[in-house]
Amino acid sequence: MLKRVVILIAGFIAAASVLLAGLVVIAIIVTYPRLPSLDILTDYRPKMPLRVYTADNVLIGEFGEERRSFTRIQDVPQYMKQALLAAEDERFYQHGGIDYLGVMRAAVGNIVSGRTHSGASTITMQVAKNFFLSSERTFTRKFNEALLAFKIEHTLSKDQILELYINQIYLGQRAYGFAAAAQAYYGKPLNTLSIAEMAMLAGLPKAPSTYNPVVNPERAHLRQLYVLRRMYELRFISAEQYEAAKAEKLVLARQTLDSSLPAQYVAEMVRQAMYGRYKEAAYTEGYRVFTTLDSRNQQWAFDSLRAGLMDYDRRQSYRGPESFVDLSAIPQEELEETLDETLSAIRDSGNLQPAIVLAANPSRVRLYLRGGKRVDVTGSGLSFARFALSERATPAQRLRPGAQVRVQQDAKGNWQITQMPEVEGAFVAMDPRSGAIKALVGGFDFNRRSFNHVTQAMRQPGSTFKPFIYSAALDRGFTPATFINDAPITIDPQTIGGQSWDPKNDDGKYAGMISMRRALALSKNLVSIRIMMSIGPDFAQQYAQRFGFDPKNIPAYLTMALGAGQASPMQMAEAYSVIANGGYRTRGYFIERIEDASGRLLARTAPAVAGQNAPQAIDPRNAFIIGNMLKDVVRYGTANRATALGRSDIAGKTGTTNDFRDAWFAGFNPSLVAVTWVGFDQPRSLGRYGYGGTAALPIWINYMSNALKGVPDIELPPPPGVVVKAGAGLRGNDEYFLEEFQSTNPELRINNRGSVPGNGNHAPQSSDAAADEPATPPQDAVENVKEQLF
């Protein structure tokens, strides 16, 4: 009877096996033809993000849902491949898509543990799932996965399959593929990683969120140790390498890849331009855009602008903490975790880090920094915020436990309490010959405010607009030696809205009859107004269009002489380029070329170049003379600080608007134009430190001291048609005249005094017609001129 039962059971099992095998065969016959085509694998085109580079090939931005870098299998380091095999599929090069030994081992493990712990997926099966299937845990999905693995193995080589896996798998931090993950986690290329770093990445595919070293460093470390142990057991690494890798302290990238070089404003300009051209494909087709930026110039510009704005801000008072955290409501055992969560939501701003006050007294402030670091700020590190430690400070200003502040380290590594400046700024530098932008910083911090002040901020240019009025005057017969009355004047109320206008010089002093060259050096407002009255506002407005100014932004009124219109820093840089390059109109541009993912050239900018194909905006003689006059602004005038550069080819003009709302400096040499602006987004007075020469010029000097270091002085000869009079200029320098307007001592005298019409359109008077020349100016005004010029 027992024998019959055994035979019956065996027969039943055999029949069931045959039936099951038949069903499997039928399922395969039915399912296999319906499997998706492998075209997506054989013609692999991953979603590649838009990448933006400087001209010297430094990555400054990356845009796309997926952060990905395609890497050929032959370029993947051997240890990276071995780490993957150790972690995911040690028999990858032996099995045919399904590792039966691995399946049996996983089955036994699942039975012993009483739960589904391992699915024994091979790398090929993971490729199948990632490209074609969902992540649901069903028998049907697993069956299709196995069949696809067989199909893939019969279509592609092992190296091709591994290449797909290495480039496609998701590894957290928006990174797809191991090359992108190397940058996301460590900020360096895949081929420069250590064995320990590769092991950490190899542990991510199993569960990217669980083993993410940024989010769960302890779990990530345990997974890393497992991968290293498997590499050692499989003899991929030696005992010495194993021990060294276990002991290696991993350092994750502190900053994300797209902010390593602070050029986010330019990266955003490129993103907008690319989206306008390619729409959504801009984010998936792997376009590479090379800008005109120079990485060193960009870093110098960024550092200079931030240093200048921070310096201005430190001259103001400490405003107090940014916010407060109630420490008493946090259990002591949860304090570090809670503070880390609070600080993780606050971005660093350059070297300005957020911190939370743990304890404070007049001599010491104890701070908590991100990552559990505690530091003490004492001595000079408290000087800026000293008032906030006194009893006189209001509760909102006081440094007390729970206050969230900003700190930075000085050159010696000492911590100091500081603050994010409220004031904003802009800086742009360009090659005047072609318009190629070398550096552009649109504000203090892109993450705080993405508004690009270089291209979007329309502000009053103030006295930086005067050179264009002077250039128009040269075109109408004035010369640098023309004498103009720097004396008070009242503009007829009937021409300016019913109220009289009594413009004044910034210093409240007047020099009497003064040459145009000297007046520009000292930025004399009354001289600019008299020039405008003589040439006429309409002509001045039309002439300013040659420099690129839109007439609607510079109304044809006398106030235009003082820069009362509107212009952006970019427009000012383009306008000053006309003077710097010999009179040609060049346009600023920031995209040099666009390539596809394979490096094929798609587009290239063909700029208008001075002296080649750029239109002639003004007479080159005019440009030379105005440029020479602007050199005296640096040598003897309001921009005298720039002489610290020790160069003879520097020219420029300061600008300060009414009530100190805007501070400017625009300067150049023949090879580089740079413009900086400082002001508040909601215009208000910058206060007594708000002059162009004190708020904006130091930023320009800081940048130029780096940008022109080692560059020889460039002294351009006068163009044909310019007459040189030796010793006739300031301090015995040569004076220059257009040959058709040269005459003898002095050339012209302009004397519009008293109450005059506001729309004055008076032609320049000759010296012979100046019968009503005013008396000699007061002695204190004369002495003031001597002090500033000599």
Can you walk through the features of this model?
Helices cover 35% and strands 15% of the residues. It is elongated. Strands 6, 7, 8, 9, 10 and 11 form a six-stranded antiparallel sheet that branches. Strands 2-1-5-17-18 form a five-stranded mixed sheet, covered by helices on one side. The chain is built from 22 helices and 25 strands. The protein has 790 residues and is an alpha+beta fold.
List the helices and strands and how they pair.
Layout: H1 2-31, H2 39-42, E1 50-53, E2 59-63, E3 67-68, H3 78-88, H4 100-113, H5 123-132, H6 139-155, H7 158-168, E4 175-176, H8 178-186, H9 195-202, H10 217-233, H11 239-247, H12 264-278, E5 288-291, H13 295-314, E6 323-324, H14 335-344, E7 353-361, E8 364-369, E9 373-378, E10 403-409, E11 415-418, E12 424-430, E13 437-441, H15 466-475, E14 483-486, E15 489-491, E16 512-515, H16 516-522, H17 525-535, H18 537-544, H19 569-580, E17 591-595, E18 601-604, H20 620-636, E19 651-656, E20 662-669, E21 672-679, H21 692-707, E22 722-725, E23 735-738, E24 749-750, E25 754-756, H22 779-789
Parallel strand pairs: 1-5, 3-4, 14-24, 15-25
Antiparallel strand pairs: 1-2, 5-17, 6-10, 7-8, 7-10, 8-9, 10-11, 12-13, 12-21, 14-16, 17-18, 19-20, 20-21, 22-23
Helix pairs in contact: 3-9, 3-10, 5-6, 5-7, 8-9, 9-10, 10-11, 13-21, 15-17, 15-18, 15-20, 16-20
